[in-house]
Amino acid sequence: MKRTLALTGNESAAEAMRQINPDVVAAYPITPQTELMHAFTQLVADGAVKTEMILVESEHSAMSACVGAAAAGVRVMTATSANGLALMWEIVYIAASLRLPLVMAVVNRALSGPINIHCDHSDSMGCRDSGWIQLYGENPQEVYDNMLQAVRIAEHPDVLLPVMPTYDGFIISHTLERVDVIGDDEASAFVGEPKPRFSLLDIDRPVTYGPLDLQDYYFEHKKQQAEAMKRAKEVVREVGEEYGARTGRAYGFFDAYRTEDAEQIILCLGSAAGTAKAVADELRDGGRKVGVLKLRMFRPFPAEELARAIGHARSIAVLDRAEGFNGVGGPVCPEVKAALYKAGGADVFNYVYGLGGRDLGPDLIRSVFDDLEAGRADPREAIHLGVRS
Amino acid sequence: MAEERGWREIPIGGLILEAGNAERYVTGGWRTYRPQVDKDVCIDCLQCWLLCPDMCINVEDGRMTGYDYAHCKGCGICERICPVHAIRMILESEAPGGADEGGCWRSGKKRAPKKGAGGGGRTA
Ligand code: SF4
Ligand code: SF4
Do B14 and A228 touch (CB under 8 A)? Predict the structure, then answer.
């Protein structure tokens, strides 16, 4: 039975995990993910899930335990943030390379230092090339929806890659919002039973995970991974559509908001999209042709679809919530520019904003649309939006 | 590598779907030091057989008969554990019969160990 609940992003993720009822969760607490794990371990303690909860001594161990459990053929989930994700680093790549369909919520937080517990995307953007699928959620509703879909996407036989649903620390993780949840039976029917191809525990069909892989076969295994990432696009689409048919909330690669005839478009990920859409509405009321492209799926990168959706605009501002320290800007913008390379006309500008939880209010968004319209932005390097001069 | 297959034909993730395949990977060439046993001193307690991480101690009828040099990596654990000091490690380059003896190879030449021959026997 459907219910409407008031949940924070973390509670919303925990509610999805309750319904998914994973076999194993191994996790270590870190702000702002901590409340998600509080809520979930309470469910374990109450017997509301059958999950084997492994409390580990570090995130490196958390991801290692997840890899082991997934190789044993069960459904595995975890969650982390920022420095916790950084400590997992080595095993994050191994999970993807071993083609283990883990799901890990990443509650976005600035990566130290200086130490900061608030939101930016430097943690998940840092592992954008680790072989994980990345889905960025805008609000607690999307957190819940992405968590359920992530399981299906990861375990799809055409994919078998880990999935990282992310959401903005504090801004989403600690904000109470309305969330529509589907019934427990519906949720379990949607995610289905895990059907592992191999299990380390199957002594009749023994299998070796993680052997040495040198010049002769490593490249072939990387090719397989690259192809799986390409196939994941279709699966993300299918799962998003099926989820829509069941719940009324369909998902794709991105959400194109009033972009069809837009001359100026802001492209962003996560919670910033809500503010951007509100500002776009206001400017539309004043007769300006503006729109917002909220990118949900950053990995795999939907280059062609994106070019079709926004290539017609006169100018585009890509908002990056992470600094790339490459001398030109953040990590999302170069990919958007590459996607638009053959699409022609649009001028693309990069804005780095919100580092360490710095607020992105409507005024700043308005200033970006104004820059775009007046042709004031510098195309050569990123503008640091909201930094004091 | 006998046959090199394409990316579509191999298991994903570098998985190996067959048990006991490590035997085909001849690792003896990694060895710097070669263990040698003095069977006059050895009391066949088989502690070396228990502890060898590469299962390279040959045993027949409950007796330690020598080494599988095709896989022994020369770690020296057997020498350390032997309670009667029957094992010593000698430099591969100074091994009797040269480096090719008993499954060690140079310049890509591979040789399987002779069955039951081990590499043991009295050292000179
Ligand atoms: S440990 Fe020493 S005494 Fe025991 S079986 Fe091995 S070589 Fe012989
Ligand atoms: S040296 Fe090491 S690998 Fe070789 S036989 Fe002794 S214990 Fe085994």
Answer: no
The reply to whether A240 and A317 lie within a common domain is: no
Q: pLDDT of chain A along its 389 residues, tens only? A: 899 999 999 999 999 999 999 999 999 999 999 999 999 999 999 999 999 999 999 999 999 999 999 999 999 999 999 999 999 999 999 999 999 999 999 999 999 999 999 999 999 999 999 999 999 999 999 999 999 999 999 999 999 999 999 999 999 999 999 999 999 999 999 999 999 989 999 999 999 999 999 999 999 999 999 999 999 999 999 999 999 999 999 999 999 999 999 999 999 999 999 999 999 999 999 999 999 999 999 999 999 999 999 999 999 999 999 999 999 999 999 999 999 998 878 999 999 999 999 999 999 999 999 999 999 888 888 999 999 99
Task: Give residue B35 CA to ligand 1 midpoint distance, Å.
Answer: 12
Kindly report the CATH number assigned to the domain that includes residue B85.
Answer: 3.30.70.20
Give B36 Cα–ligand 1 centroid separation in angstroms: 11
Ligand 1 centre to CA of A160 (Å) is 48
Range of the domain at B45: 25-96
**Gap from B46 CA to chain A (nearest CA, Å):** 28
CATH number at residue A377: 3.40.50.920
Identify which of B13, B17, B21 has the shortest CB distance to residue A221.
B13
For chains A and B, CB pairs below 8 A equal 50
Question: Is residue A215, in this structure, part of any structural domain at all?
Answer: no
B24 in contact with A, Cβ within 8 Å: no
CA of B49, closest atom in ligand 1: 6
Report the residue of chain B nearest A158, measured CA to CA: B12
Does any domain span residue B20? no
Structure tokens at A110: 């600035």
- Of B39, B42, B50, which is best to mutate to test ligand 1, by the most ligand atoms within 8 angstroms of its C-beta? B42
The answer to whether residue B123 is domain-embedded is: no
Residues A229 and A265 in one domain: no
Q: Identify whether residues A104 and A51 lie together within a single domain.
A: yes
pTM across the whole model: 0.89
- Which residue is closest in CA terms to ligand 2's atom 3? B72
In a domain, A206, yes or no: no
B2 has a chain A CB within 8 A of its CB: no
ipTM: 0.89
At A337, list the tokens.
């520019």
